[in-house]
Design goal:
106 residues, mainly alpha, 5 helices
């Protein structure tokens, strides 16, 4: 049950972040998606016996980055944007997990 959740939400997250960076989705919508995802996650939280996969670690890391950094940093900090792009590439199935990726389940 857990892997389908992460798989589905990873694809949605890719779409939201890409839409945000291309100016098609406002930051407020991205923010709402993240909190909706966390609310949905609360339903699964008690039933996860397996360890986090690499995909799941990157997923949680990316969610944290998007919520932690204020919007101007997301838009203009090149190092942060590179890290986010690396996360997106990894979630799409190519590339390596970003260095210093410490995504953990909330």
């Amino acid at each position: 049950m857990l892997n389908p959740f992460i798989d589905s939400k990873s694809q949605q997250l890719i779409n939201y972040v890409s839409g945000y960076f291309y100016g098609r989705i406002p930051y407020s919508e991205l923010h709402i998606f993240i909190w909706d995802t966390l609310e949905e996650w609360a339903q699964y939280k008690q039933n996860y016996p397996q360890e986090c996969s690499g995909q799941e670690q990157v997923f949680w890391h990316l969610l944290h980055q998007l919520e932690y950094w204020p919007e101007p940093y997301l838009l203009y900090d090149q190092q942060l944007r590179t890290n986010i792009q690396d996360c997106l590439s990894y979630l799409k199935g190519y590339g390596l997990a970003p260095a210093n990726c410490v995504g953990i389940r909330p």
